[in-house]
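Two folds, back to back.
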Amino acid sequence: MSPLPKALRVAPSRILGCGAVLLCLGSGSLQADIESRLDRAEEIREGGNYEESLELARTALARAREREDPELTGEALLQVILAHYFLGNHEEVRSLLEIGFTHCRLHNLPSLEADLLNAEGVLEWKAGNLWLARRLLENAFSMKEQRGEEESMVSIANNLGIIAYSLEEYREAVRYYRKGLTLLPEGGNPRLRASLYSNLGESLIRLENDREAELYLQRSLAIEKDLKEPHYLAYTYFNLGELKAARGNPKAAKDLYQKALRLQEEDGNVWGGALTRLHLAKLCHAGGGTGEAFAVLEPGYKAAKTLNALSLLRDYAGLYEKLYAATGEEGLATYYADLRAWFSKRLQAEGDRALPAGSRRPAVADGSPDDVPAPQLSPWRYSVVALLLLLILALLVEIRRLRRRRPEADA
């Protein structure tokens, strides 16, 4: 399974200057300041400082609203969403996405809406809703394709490849990654190129094409080391560990997994650490180190539960089933077998729920907001809307009460 943080590499449509020199006055100066903060927020986030990135993006958002600039407001909101995502504030992300979609529809910003769909698709992927995630990403890709925004399509193609990989459709995953590399301009976005190389290599391992897989993984590693971003470097080490494991070199694989895990724990990457622990424990078990496998698994299982990552939880339950069967504890082995089956059913139920209809559709070619179907609300979103309506009703009652008291005060 491909690591998530690679997936959330939304390529925003904005083309902003560096904003380093603010020579213009009035509204132009404010615009340059906002653009500068957004660029810096993105740069800092990619370096792993999510709190600082969030503060910069929030300030940019407040100033964009002050300037009443819909496009900059939308781009700032996207940066706030991405910072919250990497901080693990997923409920906050969901709430902000709803605000973002409403903003895009009100101001007819289809390109930004596609970026938000890309982000929402990744969030659903992490929750285990693979079919819904795929549909959201396909819609985002279609919207970008209609507008001819090829560079933005690269990130979405990468994410669609990750979904295909998660569904064990490895040839389809390879197709998406190669498509992304074809769309990516020569010399453009080394961060995204490294991701595509690494993910392509991972999929080629599953197709038993080790030689080509190693070529792409080494290319990715060279870029990652040059960029010096430990958050992403960890995933390339993880994929190289997968390669060594597939080649029957458990010692080298273990060293690479441990390198990845060290970087992930230093970076606070809970999901990535849980994934690496799962594969490291599998390696330990295969080598006869069942006790070591239990020790490696425990922190990762706790992390997966806090994240409610269904696909990870299913795989953890499956490995626990094997470990307890190996130790002769049949009761616990049966318990985890049943738990694995339950998680599998949950994932399938999400697929059945997602397939019929109800997600956002891509905008039509002319971008007319009247032709874009309204988003379907999930139960928790209905609850939020209901709460807002109650608050509005209470406010109206209070206004009416105060109006009734005004004549008495005048008397």
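---
second:
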Amino acid sequence: MDKRELQILSNVMNNEYGLKFIFILLNHLGAFDYSINRNLTDRDVFMHIGKREKGCWLLDCCYKANPNKFMELLAQQKKEN
């Protein structure tokens, strides 16, 4: 993300519902998943890995955009686990 896009993301994260939506996206993209189901087909494993890569990218952008809200996302994830 460029500087302008990071500012937009920061603005979204500063909104209560925006932060909740980002958290939902991160969960859907598997950003907090640390394992792979080896019983899946190769295609499904690669799809899972690709989706997780996008989740990790978004998580990294969240950190760059707003480190304090990034920490809130991590705390929320820890609370839900």
